[in-house]
Write a structure and sequence with these properties.
Shape: globular
CATH superfamily: Hypothetical protein, domain 2
Distance between the termini: 38 Å
Keywords: Metal-binding, Zinc
GO molecular function: DNA-3-methyladenine glycosylase activity; metal ion binding
Organism: Vreelandella nigrificans
Number of helices: 11
CATH topology: Endonuclease III, domain 1
Binding site for Zn(2+): 14, 27, 179, 183
Largest sheet: 2 strands, antiparallel
CATH architecture: Orthogonal Bundle
Strand content: under 5%
Order of helices and strands: EEHHHHHHHHHHH
Radius of gyration: 17 Å
Oligomer: single chain
Strand order of the largest sheet: 1-2
Pfam families: Adenine_glyco (PF03352)
């Protein structure tokens, strides 16, 4: 199909992963595969928030720097960050130096700790928003579930996480299989989702 990207191996992928060389391994090995690890879920929440207004390529290229700066997104540690840590991060050229997003990450780490106490795990909470039906792949940027998720997180005090960010998070963490219909990775993701034990 015209909207598919033919990768160097001659097989079709989602069109977006032809945008940069680093997208292909991320697309083939991470994007859309179901995740129930709280630290990985929290990392993606934070990175999606940092991406707001920027390209995913920018964030992906800085991901290892973000991991180093935020203790690999261990939210128990990030929740303890002080104004001194904010100042340190504002001097870190390896990440996005945006005070609002840095402070939101610390705030969200504190909210994540509360969520684990209330819900048992982040995974148990987020997987409740798995869509029951999915639209044609990559035709929407929000969904009823992402709108509901963003609304609930806002109510719980999370920041920098609107419906569009929530939908991108759900796509990436495998709450839906949004790989294009011809993409060779789509079937692998579907098998992973079928074998996945929902954490709620």
């Amino acid at each position: 199909m015209a909207n598919d990207f033919i990768a160097p191996d001659g097989l079709p992928r989602c069109q977006w992963c032809g945008g940069a060389a680093e997208f292909l391994p991320y697309h083939d090995n991470e994007w859309g595969f179901p995740v129930d690890d709280d630290q990985r879920l929290f990392e993606k929440l934070c990175l999606e928030s940092f991406q707001s207004g920027l390209s995913w390529r920018t964030i992906l290229n800085k991901r290892e720097n973000f991991r180093a700066a935020f203790h690999h997104f261990d939210f128990h540690q990030v929740a303890l960050f002080s104004e001194e840590d904010v100042q340190r991060l504002l001097q870190d050229a390896g990440i996005i130096r945006h005070r609002g997003k840095i402070e939101a990450t610390i705030n969200n780490a504190q909210r994540a700790k509360e969520m684990v106490e209330q819900e048992g795990s982040l995974a148990a909470f987020f997987w409740r928003y798995e869509p029951t039906e999915s639209a044609t792949p990559q035709t929407q940027t929000t969904s009823p579930e992402s709108i509901a998720l963003a609304k609930e997180l806002k109510k719980r005090g999370w920041k920098f996480f609107g419906p569009t960010t929530a939908f991108a998070f759900m796509q990436a963490m495998g709450l839906l299989n949004d790989h294009s219909l011809n993409c060779v990775t789509r079937q692998r993701v579907e098998q992973a989702r079928q074998q996945f034990q929902r954490p709620y």
